[in-house]
Amino acid sequence: MEDRRLVKYVLKSILQMLPVLFLISLIVFVLVHVTGDPVALMLPDTATEEDREILTKALGLDRPLLVQYGVFLSNLLHGDFGTSFHYGQSALPLVLERLPASFELALAAMIVATVLSIPLGIWSALKRNTFVDLIISGISVLGKAMPNFWIGIMLILFFSVMLGIFPVSGRGSFEQLVLPALTLGTGIAAQMTRLIRASMLEILSQDYIRTARSKGLLEVVVVCKHAFRNGLIPVVTIMSLQFTSLIGGTLVTETVFSWPGLGQLLVSAINTHDMSIVQAAVFVISVIVIACNLLTDIIYRFLDPRIKTN
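RE: above sequence
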């Protein structure tokens, strides 16, 4: 019964995504027309009026906007966002080619953040208003205040230049992943630590926690089994938000470490007005965000059975 209800909920959520995807497609289509004349952006300054007319007709920009949008939707359903004039290739394969690198870095950063934040957040809550709590809270504030690019440069200077342990840039090996993952993960860990601390403090003050302790249960059982699981919902929320932001928003870190991710491709396309790449990247990132939100809702149900999937 519960499995059937969950499947029904997932199907219902997917159907509800369709209007959102339609709206996203409209926004992506409008991007081309609000950023300037695509023909002027693609042609050199020496182009003649005849060249402009030929390219305008080739791109279908001489048709009414509704017709253009209909063609765009039809192409989108076939995964065709046009050809990148900068790379001379189809836009969507270029975007999908960069996704594994972005997923790899985002997942590694989230692992770093989780490994650091969960024990520190729980420890800080258990040692409330003590010297340990003060130190952890201070480090969390400091970690959140330091910009990622500065952390990345400091890590490069220490681990690469001074110690020679990790390579400075590139992708392909575990050693090349460590420094960019630490750069992104430490900032997220600082935010998650404070959130876990606040969530645990609220849970530890509940009556059922006092009841569990009064029954003589071990403190580790009370904290891990009864308290931490019930305090995971806000943590899962922030992890979902951070993961999706890492997919397309790690430009500075990708630039510092020459990491070939989606963020670098997207900003480069914006700078060169390569709108086919921008359209494909924005749409793909939007789909990932929607999928992560659905996955988060499903995780909520398993963490707290009181949350119904109607």
